[in-house]
Design goal:
This protein is α+β, with helices and mostly antiparallel strands and 256 residues long. It is built from 5 helices and 8 strands; from the N terminus they run E-E-E-E-H-H-H-H-E-E-E-H-E.
């Protein structure tokens, strides 16, 4: 007898799973039909991550779920997908390189979950991932829309993962700098710090703007992008002083 398969999901505007829907507290599915279950079950905590297991895996705080696949294990200790220099390790790169073009919506979502775990390494991640998100919309039982080919978007995002640069660890004793712009309704930014005369990237940020915001003039979209990414950056800056640079001038604070 197979053990129950469980899916735990915490909803966030940047990651929506069509099978589970959205809800602030998430939900758990016991013994869902295997044909409707994504290849990797989705566990969201500060970024898309995946695991497979039973209700025993959900005992205790979500941050202590023990059965994530080795690729998605967090931290900088042994077994981490990232080395102490904040680079993706060679064996994980080999795994990414072995991935083939997704054939189903479940495969697309699985790849996006894996890529999303590494999104801070990818400049313009939301822009690169957008065609794949569009192709995964609708029922998981239906095949991807043939009018929205994903071969090229998949290969571009895959290569971006393989070329992911090293990032500096944030120094909470030093101020931060956030460069922000807006393109195609997506806020794009790079957060970093100065090390002598050099700028050290700490994270690449990208996020879809609200549909209403996308209809605003360019100057207001840039302001919305700066505000959104400034709020996102606080997950890394922990309230340390941050100077925001944008192509559009703005007087006054971005975040109250």
């Amino acid at each position: 007898m197979t053990e129950p398969r469980v899916c735990f999901y915490v909803a966030d505007t940047s990651w929506y799973h069509p099978l589970l829907g959205a809800g602030p507290q998430g939900c758990i599915l016991h013994n869902p039909p295997a044909s409707r279950l994504p290849r990797f079950l989705c566990f969201y905590l500060g970024g898309p991550r995946h695991f497979k297991g039973t209700t025993a895996d959900l005992d205790g705080p979500p941050s202590r779920v023990p059965r994530q696949p080795p690729f998605l294990w967090t931290g900088f200790s042994k077994g981490s997908p990232l080395s102490s220099e904040r680079r993706i390790t060679l064996d994980r790169k080999a795994y990414i390189e072995s991935l083939s073009v997704p054939q189903t919506k479940e495969d697309i979502l699985s790849f996006l979950g894996l890529a999303g775990f590494l999104c801070i390494w990818i400049p313009g991640f939301a822009t690169l991932a957008k065609p794949l998100y569009e192709a995964s919309k609708g029922s998981l039982l239906e095949p991807p829309d043939p009018t929205k080919p994903i071969d090229t978007p998949f290969k571009v995002l895959k290569q971006a993962l393989l070329r992911a640069p090293a990032l500096a660890l944030p120094n909470l004793k030093e101020p931060f700098i956030l460069y922000v712009t807006e393109k195609w309704g997506i806020g794009l930014g790079v957060l970093g710090q100065m090390s002598g005369p050099s700028f050290r990237p700490v994270a690449y940020l990208s996020k879809q703007l609200d549909p209403t915001v996308k209809g605003w003039p360019a100057c207001l979209r840039a302001l919305a992008a700066a505000t959104t990414l400034a709020q996102e950056s606080t997950k890394l800056t922990f309230g340390q002083p941050t100077t925001i640079h944008s192509p559009h001038r703005r007087e006054g604070p971005f975040v109250s």
